[in-house]
Prior knowledge:
By secondary structure, the protein is α+β, with helices and mostly antiparallel strands. The chain has helices spanning 2-14, 62-82, 125-133, 144-147, 156-166, 168-175, 184-192, 205-208, 223-229, 271-278, 338-346, 354-362, 401-427, 444-454, 466-477, 505-522, 544-566; strands at 17-23, 27-34, 40-47, 59-60, 90-97, 102-106, 116-117, 179-183, 202-204, 214-215, 220-221, 238-240, 243-248, 264-270, 287-291, 295-302, 313-318, 327-334, 371-373, 391-393, 434-437, 458-461, 496-499. A seven-stranded mixed sheet has the order 17-18-16-15-21-22-23. Strand 17 (313-318) and strand 18 form a beta hairpin. Helix 5 (156-166) packs across helix 6 and helix 10 packs across helix 15 (466-477). The longest helix has 27 residues, at 401-427. The radius of gyration is 25 Å and the shape is globular. InterPro entries: Carb_kinase_FGGY (IPR000577), Carb_kinase_FGGY_CS (IPR018483), FGGY_C (IPR018485), FGGY_N (IPR018484), GK1-3_metazoan-type (IPR042018), Glycerol_kin (IPR005999). Keywords: ATP-binding, Cytoplasm, Glycerol metabolism, Kinase, Membrane, Mitochondrion, Mitochondrion outer membrane, Nucleotide-binding, Transferase.
Amino acid sequence: MNGTMAALSHRVKLGPLVAAIDQGTSSTRFLVFNSKTAELLSHHQVEIKQSFPKEGWVEEDPKEILQSVYECMERTCEKLTQLNIDISNIKAIGVTNQRETTLVWDKETGEPLYNAIVWLDLRTQSTVERLINKTPGRNKNHLKHKTGLPISTYFSAVKLRWLMDNVDKVHEAIVSHRAMFGTIDSWLIWCLTGGKSGGVHCTDVTNASRTMLFNIHTMDWDPELCDYFGIPMEILPRVRSSSEIYGLMKICSSRKSGALSGIPISGCLGDQSAALVGQMCFQDGQAKNTYGTGCFLLLNTGAKPVMSDHGLLTTVAYKLGRDKPAVYALEGSVAIAGAVVRWLQDNLGIIGSSEELEKLAASVGTSYGCYFVPAFSGLYAPYWEPSARGIICGLTQFTNKSHVAFAALEAVCFQTREILDAMNQDSGIPLSQLQVDGGMTSNRLLMQLQADILCIPVVKPSMPETTALGAAMAAGAAEGVSVWSLSPDDLSEVTSEKFEPQINPEESELRYARWKKAVQKSMNWETTEPVSNGNGETSIFSSVPLGFYIIGSMFMLIGAKYIAGSN
């Protein structure tokens, strides 16, 4: 009896709980927070498989993503039960997701019509070049005045265009009015609110602003942009604010997580916006950097969109309520950060785990002049150069795998320095410290290197799950839920750790200058418009150097045969 009473009193003390689905590029998580203290009570994580069907292609299975969400919810509910925490205390659920990743599904069968094309994917490079070539002055910023974005492989519109042009099932579903387009948030919300039986087809302003179909001034889909890409507006989800009730959860009652049925899904933010909210960067001029698969530095610019002159994106940071104003951000996006760790582990076998990378790099404490530019998907901010490819340079006979490991960590820091420099130039107010979050921040050597290379302190919160926290805050603060107050006086004090710069600025500048030199060497590696052989395959002759090499070799062979024959 006493045990039951203790459990009950414990439940009462916790107050209302809010959950978050955090669907990232490499994993899915379900996390439950105490809305009064922002304390993380329980969570579960499942890794997501990525497939690489061809060079530069990156795909994920939408059904596996959905299944991973169900599994995370199920396991977290089991853990809460073991902790004597009442699941019915969860009052709202927020969704945060990898942005730009694109999928199309059949609204009548509920089946995806192709794999999700991941934000990193490069298959649309020829589509992008074709679009840029038809703009006045071949200007990649032709749509920036409406979208805040350059025309790039990164954003959803070109991925959707590729699906429409290359996947018969998608084309047929659009013609027969059965197709639904969405980023991962739309797919999850639609499925979790009933799917083909009344699921809600929506997205929020932050995810919509990453499609190149959304006008960041009118805050809605733009008919001219849709015409430009040839995309029918009827397949697009309805755009909502980041904090309102979209629909109620519908889950099979036989599952442990069936207890979540009927709970409102009331928060939705793209992962980088969610991290900005979770870091409580609500003031104009506050910024955060998230180290995940990629690296994303966002600066809150307030109620006005600021256009960048230095290669940054203008994006919607959040809109926390239907009647609340939209807040904008400048964003520097780096494609490869944590992904370089996975590459060293899976492709090269240099390390067995991410923890091993820190030990390996720390064992030498320097890259010994080795520089690693991980431009696996071209270069994002501030260059927007899809022709770049990864290089490791400055090698000597002395270089070993530990130096390469150190150079990989430095690469993440140098890329952050480039976008921070661009941001300081655009905003005119240099950041005095950098707030950080994301999986890679557990690497203490990386955090120290980052402070050394930026020459400013790096501040890391003790609770690293700021992306999920941001989604939970948006869900809990929604009208009709109102269990989480976002007023500055009510926000919990965040404990954090500070890394101060420990090297002199001259050494930092010298290393940075050499990095810039390495970046130049990585440029113009891949050539332009691939030549198709009619089967959707790219001809080897589309690579100019390789084409010349093969043609040259053929002439040499013919010449050699001719000379041999004439003797």
